[in-house]
Specification:
The protein contains 12 helices and 6 strands. The chain has about 300 residues and is α+β, with helices and mostly antiparallel strands. Strands 2-1-6-5-4-3 form a 6-stranded mixed beta sheet, covered by helices on one side. The chain is elongated, with a radius of gyration of 20 Å. GO terms for molecular function: DNA binding; sigma factor activity. Interacts transiently with the RNA polymerase catalytic core formed by RpoA, RpoB, RpoC and RpoZ (2 alpha, 1 beta, 1 beta' and 1 omega subunit) to form the RNA polymerase holoenzyme that can initiate transcription. This is RNA polymerase sigma-70 factor.
């Protein structure tokens, strides 16, 4: 039924694009789905006869709703307990070849996008992730095209300066490292875990004050390895399962208890070693691990 409706309803036809836009703008599955619900209501109330380009109308609607949500979310995130990390999202292998460019949804990039101003983030997402022209983006945001060009240049430079320089592009190497880390962590082998960590490794854990997590970044192989193995050794995690999973287009680790996701680990690779470990364990931010909005 839904597939049949998608042939006639532009909202359903472009839902994947709209979700991808909102998710990249906000970094959370829950907020992105809320935005889509609000956009759907606006679409139902719109004068369809006056909408010349439904796709552009819907992208504009989602972008501006996301901008409003992002602006209000900034104050909330400033009061967040511990490090704030984006919600991980399960993806499937074909996403890496998708026209929407899965590299623009990586956890590392989403973290960097948090440092952009809301309008800069909107311009970057629309330009770099979806390839909209400066003129199109100017129309979406009601800003002069020259201004949008300046914002795009500034945002791209900001991201390039802050995005980690890694060798994540080699899937085979990443899988090998993941398997070695999985074996070492599951076996409680401190030395083996430390050997896999980069000398300047940093780990963040997002518990949001809901579950036990480090409230400050952890630095160095010894500190990170001991903290990681200490958490895994807790009695309540005796039945914890660790398994490889494609998170935000990159191979990471999924943690489950009784088949229910309780956490996820994403990371970057530098010279074959793990760096920038991101542990997401906030139960309110695991929704994207039980569904896959971006197939």
């Amino acid at each position: 039924m839904r597939e049949a409706m998608a042939d006639t309803d532009p909202f359903l036809e472009h839902r994947r694009l709209l979700f991808g836009t909102a998710y990249r703008m906000l970094g959370t599955v829950t907020d992105a789905e809320d935005i889509l619900q609000d956009a759907w209501l606006k679409w139902q109330q719109a004068d369809r006869a006056a909408v010349r380009n439904p796709k552009a109308y819907l992208v504009r609607t989602v972008t501006n709703l996301s901008l409003n949500r992002l602006t209000s979310a900034r104050a909330t995130r400033e009061q967040y307990v511990g490090p704030w990390l984006p919600e991980p999202l399960l993806t499937t292998p074909d996403a890496a070849e998708d026209a929407e460019r899965a590299d623009a949804v990586s956890a590392a990039l989403l973290v960097v996008l948090e440092t952009l101003k809301p309008v800069e983030r909107a311009v970057f997402v629309l330009r770099e992730a979806f390839g909209y022209s400066h003129a199109e983006i100017a129309g979406f945001l009601d800003r002069p095209e020259p201004t949008v060009r300046q914002i795009a240049l500034r945002a791209r430079k900001h991201v390039q300066d802050r995005k980690p320089r890694t060798d994540d592009a080699d899937p085979a190497q990443r899988r090998k490292v993941v398997e070695r880390f999985l074996a070492a962590a599951s076996g409680g082998d401190l030395n083996a875990v430390m050997d896999l960590l980069a000398p300047d490794v940093t780990a963040w854990s997002d518990g949001g004050g809901k579950v036990t997590a480090a409230r400050r970044p952890l630095h160095g192989p010894d500190h990170v390895a001991r903290w990681t193995l200490g958490v895994l050794a807790k009695p309540e995690y005796a039945d914890l399962r660790l398994e490889p999973a494609l998170l935000n287009g990159e191979l990471g680790l999924l943690f489950t208890l009784g088949g229910t996701p309780v956490g996820a680990l994403s990371f970057d690779l530098t010279d074959g070693h793990l760096t920038n470990l991101r542990f997401q364990v906030n139960p309110d931010k695991l929704r994207g691990l039980t569904s896959s909005p971006l197939p």
